[in-house]
Amino acid sequence: MGKTTTTPHDTGSGPDAGSGGRFGRALRSPLGWMLTGIVGVGLVSALTATGPGPVPVLGAVVALAVYWAVMRRVAGRPVPELARRGAGREVLLGGGIGLAFVLVSALLITVFGGYSFSWAGNGFLPVVASAVAVQAGAAVTEELMFRGLALQALEQLWGSRVAVTVTGLIFGAAHLIAPGADAWSALAIALEAGVMLGAAFLWRRSIWFVVGLHFAWNLAEQLLGIPVSGHTPEGLFTVDVHGSALLTGGGFGLETSIVPVVIGVLLALRMFSLARRSGGFRPGRRAAAETRG
Questions:
Q1: Which residues, in sequence order, are bridge partners of residue 238?
Q2: How many CB atoms lie within 10 A of CB 217?
Q3: Are 242 and 248 in contact (CB under 8 A)?
């Protein structure tokens, strides 16, 4: 290499410093810390999601630590969405909405002749303990990736509306790998889950709230014996499905029934309204710059 009269640190013009500087800036950008966090949390999920006993719950704890580290050390931002104060209240509130969402949807489908339930006889405590562990792990890791990382990063760039739309579509598309998935199932999940959970986050600005909603939703489905996104894990009940798949969701499960899609969209609209009143909508960098200009 040629002789230099100044160090790269002093000038910032050396090849190593330039590359390092560009890499550091890219890593600290919204897309950089989003991808870093998604890879980290996703890896934890892949290693623990199907583990025995409490392994998925331990994985959720590790995923929370990874998320905190990425946000604080890489993104350089606080994490009010993980505030411990009021966390229990947010989980319970979200859980109540998620439970009501599934129970009302299942009840309406049953009233219209789509579902009939019978006791499975698999043992109460083992089934519940396993379901709680699996669904807690899934709810925490998915919400950290989609609402914590992806939504907040895209929101910082392009604003809340774009962030919710994009993450909702991606959330639906991610479920195309589920057994029996098709274009309708992806769209249904994008609307009733992706958009609704995005609206829920804008409203409460709390990971705990959306985790509670997501967890109670999936747990209730599993315990009722309804397939969860094409998977049929062991539940307390078994469900017999009758009639149109548009009503029942068919073999894929409740998510592709028109009933929860309509309810989910109505809930999302209400949450958007509440978020707007509380100042939960935020402009992206370009819109903020234009406003200042």
A1: 118
A2: 30
A3: yes
Give the span between the Cα atoms of 16 and 1, in whole angstroms: 12
* Separation between Cα atoms, residue 154 and residue 161, nearest integer Å: 10
Closest CA to 59 of 3, 113, 140, 132: 140
For residue 159, the model assigns a pLDDT of 97
Nearest to 106 by CA among 204, 253, 3: 253
CA distance 221 to 113: 18
Single out the residue of 139, 156, 276 nearest to residue 216, CA to CA.
139
- This prediction has a pTM of 0.89
Are the beta carbons of 41 and 149 closer than 8 angstroms?
yes
State pLDDT tens for residues 96-109.
Answer: 999 999 999 999 99
Between CA 282 and CA 267 the distance in angstroms is 20
Q: What angle do CA 226, 218, 150 make, to 5 degrees?
A: 135
C-alpha–C-alpha distance, residues 119 and 248, integer Å: 19
- For residue 100, give the amino acid letter: A
**φ, ψ of residue 238 in degrees (nearest 5):** -115, 150
CA distance 4 to 180: 63
pLDDT of residue 284: 79
